[in-house]
Amino acid sequence: MISRLIDWCIANRFLVSALTIIVASLGIYATSTIPIDAIPDLSDVQVIIYTPWQGRDPQTIEDQVTYPLATTMLSVTGVEDVLG
Q: Between the CA of residue 45 and those of 48, 66, 82, what are the distances in Å?
């Protein structure tokens, strides 16, 4: 199998050389156009929940929406801190 592949490559030198140049050029192009994030974001992932509720005072929103969400978020695995 490999000997047939080698024989085919020797018989088609121009095609193999052209394909090699094309693939190498595409690799160089891809490497030069890949965006690189030089400064990684090492901060913790944060989720901000905005809960508008027309006609309700902030204390009611805190008691009926924000507090139940915060207590539920405490049960999620991997959570280190919940601010509510």
A: 10, 19, 12
Count Cβ atoms within 10 A of the Cβ of residue 65 and give its class: 0-12 exposed, 13-18 middle, 19 or more buried. Answer: middle
First to last CA, the chain: 67
Among 8-17, 18-27, 39-48, 53-62, where is mean pLDDT lowest? 39-48
- Rg of the chain over Cα atoms, rounded to whole angstroms, equals 30
Characterise 80 by phi-psi region: left (phi > 0), alpha (psi -120 to 50), beta (else). Answer: alpha
pTM, two decimal places: 0.41
